[in-house]
Task: structure prediction
Amino acid sequence: MRVQVETLGECRFHVTLVGAQVYSLLGRLRQGFVEQRGVQVGRRRRRSSDAGVLGMAGIAVFVVGVPAVQFARDNIAVIVAVVIVLVAGVVAAFYARQWLHRRRLERDQDHLRAVLPFHAMDDKQFEHALASLCRSAGCRDVEVSGGAGDRGADVVAVTADGRRLIVQAKRYNINHAVGDREMQQFVGGISTWHTYDVAVLVTTSRFTRSARQTAERTGIRLVDNVMLAKWNAGAIPAPWI
Result:
């Protein structure tokens, strides 16, 4: 009798377990169906939205394109004339830019030729040449003090209006630009060891962007090879005027 009861209990247990598994399987199948249905609905909505956008674009092309084609057909001579004018303007602008570029190169070459005599000098001769330019600009008490221990002051003078002037000379090759390191050394030297109202750094080369920025912050006047050629030719006044 006990064996029959236990067997009946085990059967009920197995039936319950199988029922639970079947219920779980049905739930997963239902969830998968719902998800697939949602995907299909989303695809239909996107397709509908894309179709609407394409339809609006087609209407816009028709509304704008038809009058444009009709205008072009009725005014073909005007359109051709406008195109010719635009092309001519582009070509003229191109050649004008090329001409200006050549003129700029020619001027730069002229300036370089004008500064060649300074390149042929040694450092001391270059300092004396700058001292001569200072005298020509009306300076007095002009002295060349360049050399060891000059602390950045190669030429010292008093301007025509009474300001104390310091000039440093950098006779560099045209490809050797004066950088920010030289600029900071110049500023540090004259600020520590000299009393001045105007400070000018003159080079036979050019200045880097960072050097120009330092000069602008500290009030140093800069003269590169182009300005030096103009100053020497009398085309521009002295940099402190």
